[in-house]
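Q: Structure for this?
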Amino acid sequence: VAAEETDERLMLRFQAGDAGAFESLMRRHRRPVFSFLVRLVGDRPRAEDLLQDAWLKVVDAAPRWERRARFTTWLYTIARNLALDEQRKAVHRKSESLEAIGADGRSLAEGLPGEGPGPDRGAEDALMRPRLEAALAALPEEQREVFLLREYAGLPFQEIGRVTGVSENTVKSRMRYALEALRRQLEALGVGPDDAVAAEPRSATR
Amino acid sequence: MTLTHDACRALLIDLAYGELDRRAALRVEDHLAGCPECRTEWERLGATRRTMQALEPVEPDAGGERILLAAARQAADARAATRQARLFPGWVWKLSATTAAVLIVGGVSYRILWPQQALQAPDRASEVYAPAAASSPTVANAPLPAAAPPMPAPSAGAAPRLAAKAAAKRGAQDAARSVAEERLAPHKAKKEMAATAPASMAPPPPPSSPAPVADADPDRFALRMTPEGGAVKRKQPTPDVAEDARKADQAEEEAKDAPLVGVAGAASGLTVSEQAARSRQAPGQTALAERRPNAVPKPASPQEEIDALAQAIDQRGRAGQLARVGTGPCHKLGEVERRFYRDDGGRIVSYQRRELTGDGSVTVEHYYDQDGRLRLARITRIRSGQRTVERIYLDATGERSLSGDRVPTGLVRDPEAASRSATPCGDGP
């Protein structure tokens, strides 16, 4: 039953003092938010910290959440702003940031989860993934965040505009640039359109 | 109606992500069928997407989840007392949820750790609770139910086991309440009690007479349990009553949810006839009978003096008579919150700090006497949602513990130095 409840209903319940509703929200969104953060900042430990901060902020700010706001929009706004704030504060730590990732994408891939390919995944996938991460990491941040939010987090363009504070049209043009840049990157990394067979339906990966 | 080439092209990503309504989607698809350029674009877009979809979500460390749930539980508990929460800043409530547990747990361990106290004031509640509490120091750490139903009052004919459990539960309330009274503002709490429930100070009525309403009323219980003192001031029932009653039920539920304490304690501490006698007594009377020895004036023990000192500080803090300086809470692991309370003379009388660990939090509340010596450290640990509380009483040197036990390291004896050191949250909360 809890799985069918909307995020917004769960938030209302949490506002009313039901900690179980928060748990449901977290189980639903913790992993997608983390995926967003780790690919946005390109550093797993920092993404872990940001993830924790974001959810603590959800706890603290829950009383101020208003029903008309979509929960995911609110959640990703919090996560994104924390990441940007932290990045601003950590300019001097820039050496560890995305620039450190070479064209082969290894440094980012190494920072990503250690679990090996799944039982039904071949060696090709193990080779493919770092290249995909690298292609993503090579995107300018403003395009990357839009792509992450639309492609993986599933936010509509309009909501992405709210999260990033730009118009829907701007979001869409960033998305077009992102898709075009990715296509070129993938080509440059030797991932041709034929390799796309490695892809599986998204529902299976979530 | 057909779309221009440019308009169609602009809508390709909307189509790709399912953001077009059916009619618009059909129009774009119509155009696609007849426009090779757009079709190429469309196919590229799809290929890129399919490739990128091979990237799976990234799994975060599991460790952080527990601390978040603990934080959410604390916040939810505090929110359950919404109206009062508006009177105080959020962090006070975070502490206060803990404080309620401190009062119960602290009260129990207090009696165990200082048995001379029990000797001076033989007290059934402590007999009932001592054995089980020793094996289970976290009486109040059961997860709070969102809305606990009130327990029906046990009837005289209830099964012995039920009766024993109920008696034990009343004992828990009583222990918690008497501790609450001792801990917070003793004068005020007692004055208040005398004013609104004179029967509680009078000799107990014979067993057949009705119980004093005030003592049996869960709302009264809630009022005295409220560590903030805000509710204690209230004399007239207000719409808060329902909320308070609910809180009382929660507290009751907490006691009930620690069945080892209640059932095992009653079994080992009471004979069957005692249980039966208790079940015949009204709850209020039981409470009275057990409370009376404590009401008799007696010389204060060192712990009591220290408790009084800490209570006085808490009370002045709540009344706004102390200057509060603090940082936090900030959002990170490690130290996240600090509070210094200074009196008129600028002396730090209390220093509180909170730290988030990987799986919970540690709050240390330090209390200093007029000579600036650390006399009490109350350490509340929340780990995986479980609360434990430790109270460390120090003698007048501020160095040795009254119980003779080893004093944990990390207590702050020089709060001035701490107040000058770097703040936990960096450049701002």
